[in-house]
Amino acid sequence: MSSDATTTRRGRPPQTREQAEEVKARIVLATAEVFTRNGSRGLSVAQIIEQAGLARPTFYRYFGNAAEPLHVLLAASNECLVGGIRAALTGTDKPVELGIRLIDAYLGWARGHGAMLRPLFAELHDPASPVSAYRERALDDIRATVRETFAELGRPVPSPLDLDAALHVCEYVVYRISAGAAPGAEPDAATVDAARLTMIRVLLTTLGTRADIEYALDIPNLFPEAPRSPEAG
């Protein structure tokens, strides 16, 4: 028997690209589970491979350390958020609808993360966490997308302060409703609906024009009715 044949028989069976991608996805999914429980500081190769049910050499065939699959996870999260908002801001030239679509894209991104939102939001403003750097990249991309959309529609481009105020309110509201949900559970529909209205009102008053606000006043249930005076009754 030739030495080549012996090597082939004793070596590992060849792995298809699909199989390799499946293992990588399994590692990234396990990383998400560990990150959800422990945050980025509690992430380790030992915990990831235990969660994934894989051997250590298998992990190192694809990633050099525990931070690498976390970066894959955070990059995918960013793409989901930025891509969703970019898609939401196309296909309509109605300003109020644009704002509502942006908010719905943000809420859709949040629903796709479930319990992982807790450690994400906990580390947003921690300069030592990789989450913070990815947040800044996402915000930069979203700012650019909003400015480009407004310019294309011939609308006044929001000032940096107004745009950041609107985006930070969206971020904060999503954090509030996710933090208020039971661990591992999604916020209830009524809470999400109320949060959505809050976000719409804030975006209208920070990014909208007088005409936008006058138009929005006719949208049912967007703004609460003024209390009726005793004389009116």
Detailed description of the structure:
It contains eleven helices and no strands. Mean pLDDT is 87; it is low at 1-11. The protein is 68% helix and 0% strand. The relative contact order is 0.09. The chain is an all-alpha fold and 233 residues long. The longest helix has 23 residues, at 130-152.
Could you write a compact summary of the structure shown?
68% of the residues lie in helices and 0% in strands. It has helices at 3-10, 17-38, 45-52, 56-62, 67-88, 95-111, 117-122, 130-152, 160-179, 189-207, 210-216.
Task: Name a few traits of the molecule.
about 230 residues; mainly alpha; about 70% helix; elongated; disordered N terminus
Largest sheet: none
Mean pLDDT: 87
SS-based structural class? mainly alpha
Instruction: Give the overall form.
Output: elongated
Radius of gyration: 23 Å
Question: Ends: how far apart?
Answer: 102 Å
Return residue spans where pLDDT drops below 50 for at least 5 consecutive residues. 1-11
Q: SSE order in H/E notation?
A: HHHHHHHHHHH
How large is the share of residues in beta strands? under 5%
- Helix count? 11
Give the helix proportion (percent range).
Answer: 55-70%
Overall number of strands:
0
